[in-house]
Specification:
The complex is a heterodimer of chains A (63) and B (260). By secondary structure, chain A is mainly alpha-helical. Chain A has one domain (18-63). Chain A is built from 2 helices and no strands. Chain A has helices spanning 4-14, 17-62. Chain B is mainly alpha-helical and 260 residues long. Chain B folds into 2 domains: 2-32 and 77-259, Four Helix Bundle (Hemerythrin (Met), subunit A) (Up-down Bundle); 34-75, no CATH class. In chain B, 75% of the residues lie in helices and 6% in strands. Chain B has 9 helices and 2 strands. A two-stranded antiparallel sheet of chain B has the order 1-2. The radius of gyration of chain B is 23 Å and the shape is elongated. Classes of the chains: A mainly alpha (63), B mainly alpha (260). Chains A and B meet through α1 and α2 of A and α1, β1, α2, α4 and α5 of B.
């Protein structure tokens, strides 16, 4: 248990804590999520482009 | 891997590291700022508070303090949101300026890649605007006790948010590619007018929103690190999305090639 003095002192600071934690957590998760999703889409597209490029090359050779 | 993509990845990692460093610095290195309002606390608490770095209240408040209590400045813990909120807000304005520049270039040179760059920059702007709004709202609630206040900075930024959303609504409502790009570019330039207004408004008229002036060193260092990190993240997001759009266009061209 906190003593009365510490309780008051922490009370002055910690009233805002949930908002501060929420602000950082939401921003971090949103930015990290956005970068991860973009990267995954990029990797998938890159694979598809390579496949199609190979297919176009193969067709050109066959012709 | 393309060189620009490699740079984007390096900047994304560096940006992540620097913003994390700013976050740690905000809670360890930066001194807790105090509110101009004072609170009366018992003597024992005041002694600890002053020892912990909270300044005592001004003389007039001290005189009026009830017996057995001392006035100290209220610690402003919610100010810690500043170290993420301001860099992300500044990044949103910078990226939107980049979108406006590419929109102008598109209108002059009519090159499709400029339109793609403008669209991607607008998308990054929207991501940063959402981040600014969320962190700002939480700070508003913690500091002012309300979720929203129709004061100049918040109002002009809300208008900017609506304009950026409207940009995408406009783009999605036009079928023809050329017309879509032209309308989008003109609208982006029109929307950008709100950027300097939003930035300057707290300096031009009375506003509850704090204006960025005279940070003390312990706050300035984590803030600058946060600014550098967020700028790198902004550029990384923009480059990653541009590379994605470029690959999409290449994919469409290849499909057409194979089908034709």
């Amino acid at each position: 248990m906190l003593d009365a003095t510490n309780k008051l002192l922490y009370g002055l600071v910690l009233r805002d804590a949930p908002f501060v934690i929420a602000a950082y957590a939401v921003l971090w998760l949103a930015l990290a999520g956005y970068v991860t999703v973009t990267l995954r889409r990029l990797i998938k597209l890159d694979k598809e482009v390579k496949l199609l490029e190979d297919a176009v090359k193969a067709r050109t050779k066959a012709e | 891997m393309k060189r620009s993509l490699r740079w984007a990845l390096i900047l994304a990692v560096l940006g992540g590291l620097l913003t994390t460093l700013a976050f740690v610095g905000a809670f360890t290195y930066a001194r807790v700022q105090t509110f101009s309002t004072t609170v009366n606390v018992p003597n024992a608490v005041a002694r600890k508070a002053v020892k912990a770095g909270f300044p005592a209240g001004d003389a007039a408040t001290q005189m009026a303090a009830p017996p057995g209590t001392v006035a100290v400045h209220k610690p402003w813990f919610s100010q810690k949101i500043f170290f993420f909120h301001v860099p992300i807000a500044v990044a949103s304005l910078v990226v939107m300026t980049i979108a406006a520049i590419f929109s102008l270039l598109f209108l002059i040179k009519r090159k499709k890649s400029y339109d793609t760059r403008a669209k991607v920059a607008m998308e990054a702007t929207l991501v940063f605007i959402i981040g600014t709004m969320i962190s700002g709202d939480l700070w508003t609630r913690a500091s002012w006790g309300v979720w929203w206040e129709w004061e100049p900075r918040l109002t002009t930024y809300a208008i900017l948010t609506l304009l950026v959303i409207a940009y995408f609504v406009l783009r999605n409502s036009v079928e023809d590619e050329e017309r879509r790009a032209t309308y989008g570019a003109v609208f982006a330039l029109f929307a950008w007018v709100d950027v300097p207004i939003t930035f300057m408004i707290t300096r031009m008229m009375p506003s509850q929103h704090p204006a960025l002036t005279g940070l003390e060193t312990s706050n300035l260092i984590p803030f600058m690190i946060g600014m550098a990190g967020m700028s790198m993240l902004g550029f990384a997001i923009y480059e990653l999305r541009f590379n994605e759009e470029h690959l999409r266009e290449r994919l469409a061209a290849l499909k057409e090639d194979l089908e034709g």
